[in-house]
Amino acid sequence: MRLSQYFLPILRDNPKEAEIVSHRLMLRAGMIRQEASGIYAWLPLGLRVLKKIEQIVREEMDRAGAVEMLMPTLQLADLWRESGRYDAYGPEMLRIVDRNKREMLYGPTNEEMITAIFRSGVKSYRELPKNLYHFQWKFRDEQRPRFGVMRGREFMMKDAYSFDVDEASARISYNRMFVAYLRIFARMGLTGIPMRAETGPIGGDLSHEFIVLAETGESGVFINKDVLNLPIPPETVDYAGDLSGIVTQWTTLYAATEDVHDAARFEAETPEAKRVSTRGIEVGQVFFFGDKYSKPMKAMITGPDGVERPAQCGSYGVGVSRLLGAIIEASHDDKGIIWPESVAPFTVGLANLKVGDDATDAACEKIYAALTKAKVDVLYDDSDDRPGGKFAKLDLIGLPYQIIVGPKGIAADEIEVKTRATGERETLPLGEVIARFSGSVWVS
Questions:
Q1: DSSP states along 130-171
Q2: What's the mean pLDDT when you consider all of the chain?
Q3: Whole-number pLDDT of residue 443
Q4: Across the chain, which distance is largest between two alpha carbons, in Å?
Q5: Sign of the CA dihedral running 386, 388, 394, 397
Q6: pLDDT greater than 90 at residue 413
Q7: Nearest Cα to 183, choosing from 221, 239, 136?
Q8: Which end of the chain has fewer surrounding CB within 10 Å, N or C?
Q9: If phi over 0 gives left and psi between -120 and 50 gives alpha, with beta otherwise, what is residue 368?
């Protein structure tokens, strides 16, 4: 993408309304624009990251055996009355009446709707297990939306819902999602620590929040620091096998949010040198709630004994839009964002330091064409900005690599390559730069 054709409204100064790093940098880097309190427009750079995060989540959900679908944002109030949650949910729910006087709501979550969909299509244990998921915008009318996308009113979530014939098989489904979540966050350069947590308005008696440690997090957390060194399950993990060993490994060491923290247990189980008390950002949560919804909504399954019983269910959420903030909080410096390559909006920023110089323009065009052909995401800064402005812009938006092309370097067949995360710089001939990033042999 050529910057001259792109929409990237960079802000020079820190916005006064931004209280934390991620909010400040997302606004400055032209990723989002506030439209109302807690509601944002996603500008092109931000949307590219959002889509890359979504794709990682999708790949891991599919690998774990879940099936993607899409449910609407608006839901009938009558569905929520079936479960008993309509009046109990609280003022965070945005309630709506349409022109025909039907009571509706902008969905904060989808347990009722997916249960109704399931009961209309599955009747026998032979059709189980099932795990259905979707990506959808949610709305929760937060009293004090703050911190940008970290605590907005409208947000993108991946929510999945499992259905099983009995509790034993439902816990197997729970374990699959637990393991998939470990992989999802690791692929984004994060350590998502599963912690015992309150189930809140979702309900049930088993839940883990996945927390990324950050001083700006909304939750107080207490962990044994050894949990930070536990191995992430590999891509080859067998989701059809027994995953309980992995879950046990990740839940044996103490890790809990302040809501369920047991100080006496923490001290008894964790050596003093390994006790960590800090704050964290919730990026996902998994729940097993049994028949909380299937029983009142009569989502019945005929078991192998011929007896009808409510399906055993769980739900599994990932805060897709919130993850952008969490990644930035975990990966930035005083110059701007440092994106992990897996979610970066572009892999390479190509800076032409003297637009209009024939040799410099020609070299940049060769690099841009070769990398584009090799399907490398490149943002080519072909603007008339001064070199200092281009460097500051590339550091701010945090692309993993910068290729810097100027007339002096071209005259000596020297092009500078900078790695954003480390600041390391090296000088290479044009052909080697193209070969390195395109993965092919350069032929002049």
A1: EEEEEEEEEE---SS-BTGGGB-SEEEEEEEEEEESSHHHHH
A2: 94
A3: 44
A4: 82
A5: negative
A6: yes
A7: 239
A8: C
A9: alpha
Chain-centroid distance, C-alpha 113: 23
| pLDDT at residue number 199 | 56
Query: 322: helix, coil or strand?
Result: helix
Backbone angles phi, psi at 45, to 5 degrees: -65, -45
Q: What angle do CA 379, 381, 383 make, to 5 degrees?
A: 150
- H or E element in which residue 101 lies: none
Exposure letters 5-43 (e unless 16+ CB within 10 A, then b)? eeebeeeeeeeeebebbbbbbbbbbbbbebeeebebebb
Closest CA to 227 of 208, 207, 255: 255
Tell the burial category of 304 from Cβ atoms under 10 Å away from its Cβ (0-12, 13-18, 19+): exposed
Helix (H, G, I), strand (E, B) or coil at 269: helix
Question: Cα(73)–Cα(138) distance, rounded to whole angstroms?
Answer: 7
Read off the tokens for 154. 């409208």
Q: Smallest Cα–Cα separation from 255: which of 187, 314, 192, 172?
A: 192
Q: How far is CA 62 from CA 65, 160, 176, 237, 346, in A?
A: 5, 11, 11, 13, 25
DSSP 3-state of 341: coil
Give the type of residue at 207. Answer: S
Q: How far apart are CA 270 and CA 268, in angstroms?
A: 6
Bridge partners, 416 (sequence order):
404, 427
Q: Structure pTM?
A: 0.94
Measured CA to CA, the distance from residue 374 to residue 115 in angstroms comes to 45
Tokens 């810097």, residue located: 404
For residue 392, the tally of other CB atoms under 10 A from its CB is: 16
Which residue carries 């910068």 as its tokens? 402
Q: Are 30 and 45 in contact (CB under 8 A)?
A: yes
pLDDT at 219 over 60: yes
Q: Which has the closest alpha carbon to 233: 251, 247, 223?
A: 247
Q: Encoding tokens for residue 197?
A: 């947590």
**Phi first, then psi: what are they for 402, rounded to 5°?**
-120, 130
Token digits of residue 307: 């007896």
At 66, give phi and psi (nearest 5°).
-80, 160
